[in-house]
Amino acid sequence: MKLNIALLAGDGIGPEVIDQAVKVSDAIAQKFGHEITWKPALTGAAAIDAVGEPYPDSTHEICKNADAVLFGAIGHPKYDNDPSAPVRPEQGLLKMRKALGLFANVRPTFTFPSLLDKSPLKRERIEGTDLVFLRELTGGIYFGEKGRRDNGDTAFDNCVYTRAEVQRLAKKGFELAMTRSKKLCCVDKANVLETSRLWRETVQAMEKDYPEVEVSYEFVDAVAMRLVQWPNSYDVLITENLFGDILTDEASVISGSMGLMPSASMGAEVSLFEPIHGSYPQATGLNIANPMATVLSAAMMFENFGLMEEGKAMRDAVNKALEAGVVTEDLANGAKAYGTKEVGDWLAANI
């Protein structure tokens, strides 16, 4: 297969972990007889510094014409610490999601047998956890009207959803549940919010189309609690943008490290694959960032193309590295820590 992949390294540790994912992906391509053309493009603070905006038109052209996008991370302290900055890296991320129609964020959370005791939660609470969040990504409060009034003393952010936006996300949730344990949880705040009531009634109306799926409806605060108490009670969860942003970060630490969790943002034409950990600017250039989440994101990318054996080979290599202790300092726990590049080299060599 010939693959044309847009490569958005971004900021902070983004370029470092992306380099390792490219290295491992190229090893996969060589092993299985594929051809990958990587097309780098600017985004985030790097793009602001270069051309004055975080998601330039030139980057969009590369992304929309690609088979997929492999993304690193965006964010820089000089913008994080300046609330009045007129242009921010995160604006580029929102613009990209909207422009590419990336409406469904897929965030798996699973455990690794060799790391069960590194989780902040007790082994018996997390063993067997294998859940997936589908977060709506282009609607809700992040994209609603926002502003100030009363001379800046009052601020507002509007949360707006249409039934069609809920239906297309829920459809993916039902379809995913059918491939797993046929359990779906709709997360909302329907006792307070009108948008949540729309979510709930829309999903309820879709139940008849998926009679084999057992659907539950839970308030977001209850789910936040149960993710800590009994995470393995969940399988597929669907929710709106803000709730999903918060809950997926909470779920990500169950595995023992945010440096292990991949994600995908799915669109009608092109999909984007990225680690969840952010730009981690303090580690930039130190060769200590964990590249495994980015490598696992690339595995999700291969599987999205139907290349299941290739994705499995990447995940198997990561599991072998964890079992062999070939890990960066976030997982070393006092033992020898390998550098970002060294982990990437080991994974590529073991494909």
From TrEMBL:
N-terminal signal peptide: none
Cell compartments where the protein resides: Cytoplasm
GO biological process terms, semicolon-separated: L-leucine biosynthetic process
A Pfam family: Iso_dh
Key word Manganese present: yes
Reactions that this protein is recorded to catalyse: (2R,3S)-3-isopropylmalate + NAD(+) = 4-methyl-2-oxopentanoate + CO2 + NADH
Cited function: Catalyzes the oxidation of 3-carboxy-2-hydroxy-4-methylpentanoate (3-isopropylmalate) to 3-carboxy-4-methyl-2-oxopentanoate. The product decarboxylates to 4-methyl-2 oxopentanoate.
Protein's recorded name: 3-isopropylmalate dehydrogenase
The organism's taxonomic lineage, starting at the top: Bacteria, Pseudomonadati, Bacteroidota, Flavobacteriia, Flavobacteriales
Gene that produces this protein: leuB
